[in-house]
Amino acid sequence: MLCPCCNANMELGVIQGAHGVLWSAKKKKVFVVADESIGDIAIAHSILYTAPAYLCRDCEKIVIDYNTK
């Protein structure tokens, strides 16, 4: 896969989480569950989670697909 930011080749790997993984627009002081009412997106709902992820070492970006269903 080519990086959408710099067009360099990306490496396939995984994103992992031991107690769930989430993306949020604001950094949380303490780890909490995703609050979808303010736009948080839960990346994982289980205790052990892995998902394919592409890493760009040139611009330090990671691209993953998420599914909230």
Task: List its salient traits.
single chain; 69 residues; 3-stranded antiparallel sheet; two-stranded antiparallel sheet
Strand content: 25-35%
Give the CA-CA distance, first to last residue: 25 Å
Structural class: mainly beta
Shape: globular
Number of domains: 1
Radius of gyration: 13 Å
Verbal overview:
There is one protein chain. The radius of gyration is 13 Å and the shape is globular. The strands form two sheets. It has a three-stranded antiparallel β-sheet, with no helix packed on it. A two-stranded antiparallel sheet has the order 2-3. It is built from no helices and five strands. A hairpin with a 4-residue loop joins β4 and β5. The chain is 0% helix and 33% strand. It has one domain. It is mostly beta strands.
Topology:
Blueprint lengths: L10 E7 L4 E2 L17 E2 L6 E8 L4 E4 L5
Antiparallel strand pairs: 1-4, 2-3, 4-5
Provide a short characterization of the protein structure:
This protein is mainly beta and 69 residues long. It has one domain.
